[in-house]
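User: Fold this, then the next.

Assistant: Folding the first:
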Amino acid sequence: MHESVKTITLDEEAYDLLKMWKTSNKESFSKVVKRVVPTPGTLGALLSYVEEAGTSSLPGNEALEEAVNLRPAVKNDPWT
């Protein structure tokens, strides 16, 4: 099966940031994006990212955890 390919443009700063996430010269930028960029809008994706990236001990996590705990039980659609 052949995957669809898209061409994107990055400025030098964005390219350098993305390149820093590569774990080897053989890793494609597509694999980096799939590994690093969480699915938007899901707390599960954020939690997975924090656990995998090892950022759980960084300052500010208490505020994030408090904000998550204060969120409404029912998710509202921001587009409606």
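Now the next one, as you asked:
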Amino acid sequence: MAKLRRVCAVLLAALVLFAVLTSFLATLGEADHDCTGEDCPICAAVAVCWKVLERLAKLLIITLIFAASVLAALCVAPAFCRLLRKVTPVSLNVKLLN
């Protein structure tokens, strides 16, 4: 099961890398084409490539923000729990002998 998950993750990463590279190369290759006007198919393809790159960049930003917030929560939670713990004679192992 773990091997299948690893293979799926590698395939997904390869697919995202392929999408980024093809979009970038298509945009770079058709940057200075002879535009035919308003309904230019090359301009439409370049616009789609830019939209793919923008969406992947937004996805990367959202993923980084989520990972940072999870990491911050995992680091802050133990300190916060220690702060909330009450100090009592029992927790200090104090013997109350009169």
